[in-house]
Amino acid sequence: MARSIVVLDRDGVINQDSDAYIKSAEEWQPLPGSIDAIARLSKAGHLVAVASNQSGLGRGLFDEYALAQMHGKMHALVEDAGGNIAMVCFCPHQPGEGCLCRKPATGMLEQIQEQLHIPLAGHFFIGDSEKDLVCAANFGMRPVLVRTGKGATTENEVGDRFPDLAVFNDLAEAVEQLD
Question: 9 catalytic, yes or no?
């Protein structure tokens, strides 16, 4: 049994983010150190799950096959590094659709908790946006911010709303400090 679970946002935490959206496996490029960081978590006995808003699906910018190829690439890279991602869930909806899964709503965390049979409260959620932080806090998780992706901007915007927020330069540094 895993010691704990760590939930990660995808774009801007694991891979390069783009305002034009990541639309293919070719465009999906891991951030330096992120794949090894996930493998390190996995090797240390932590389950790793990914919760990602993917409104590009709802906008028709890519289809589920393209998304599956991106996630297949991510899984393969992590497995090649000796690690494992236990689960990936995503929200395909656009902002304003009122779904229960798009962060900051907690639907994806509920899905992870239910499918992996591990209570998420008290465990880490690492993200780069205010939506990630709010989602984590609303579910009783411990939000962690990385400065990659939108994280540096988020750090300046959240101010005192998250007084005990752990902030790291990237996923590799976060895993090194939190493990």
Answer: yes
Strand extents, DSSP E, the chain = 5-8, 47-53, 87-91, 124-127, 142-146, 166-168
Percent of the chain with pLDDT over 90: 93
99 half-sphere exposure, CB direction, 13 A CA radius: 17
- For residues 134-155, give the mean pLDDT: 97
Identify whether 160 is a catalytic site residue.
no
* Residue of 9, 17, 128, 132 marked catalytic: 9
Place of tokens 């880490």: 124
pTM comes to: 0.96
- Exactly one of 11, 17, 128, 170 is catalytic; which is it? 11
Instruction: Please say if the pLDDT value at position 146 is more than 80.
Output: yes
